[in-house]
Amino acid sequence: MVNFRVGHGYDVHRLASGRKLVLGGVEISFEKGLDGHSDADVLTHAIMDALLGAAGLGDIGQSFPDTDVLYKNAYSIELLRKVAVRLKENGWRVGNIDATIIAQAPKLAPYRAQMVENIANALEIPPSVVNIKATTEEGLGFTGRGEGMAAHAVCLIGGSS
Question: Are 94 and 125 in contact (CB under 8 A)?
Fold first, then answer.
């Protein structure tokens, strides 16, 4: 019998000067980057939380705590690879991922294909099952004012029970 589970992830980081902007493992030229213990890749963090949650394996804070120097400035795509290993060890396979980045700027469409490729490669899944979208909030809220970025992700995983 196949067992299916759905997961949801959400992450947010503030924008700060002197930081690189990394989304989906892609370094994007922008005057500010996301502030955090790791590279603060909100997209990859939301995806990791969705996958870990669906599998009942906690969240990224439990797996990669910001109190651990091992994860200081960590490249989140490498952390996603570790999540993929944990999923496989627990008998889960990724069915699909659908994610949305919420940011007023910069325009992200030119980077979407590389983000999809990076995430698919890290999880060893076809790019066709990874969907990434971006939206603004029309100037409303902290993302609309350019104070930070957020991301939501949902996933479907399956395994034998």
Answer: yes
Alpha helix segments (H runs only) across the chain? 42-54, 60-63, 76-89, 112-123, 141-144
Q: What does residue 158 show for φ and ψ, rounded to 5 degrees? A: -140, 155
Burial of 35 (0-12, 13-18, 19+ CB in 10 A): middle
What six digits make up the tokens of 98?
A: 């659908």
pLDDT digits (tens, 9 = 90+) for 64-114: 888 888 888 889 999 999 999 999 999 999 999 999 999 999 999 999 999
Query: Letter for the amino acid at 157?
Result: I
Q: How far apart are CA 33 and CA 46, in angstroms?
A: 17
Asked whether 15 and 146 are in contact (CB, 8 A), the reply is yes
- Between CA 85 and CA 103 the distance in angstroms is 30
User: Hey, how many other C-beta atoms are within 10 angstroms of the C-beta on 117?
Assistant: 15
Measured CA to CA in angstroms, residue 11 lies from 73, 108, 160 at distances of: 17, 17, 29
Nearest to 55 by CA among 99, 6, 95: 6
Q: Would the CA dihedral through 43, 151, 132, 134 be positive or negative?
A: negative
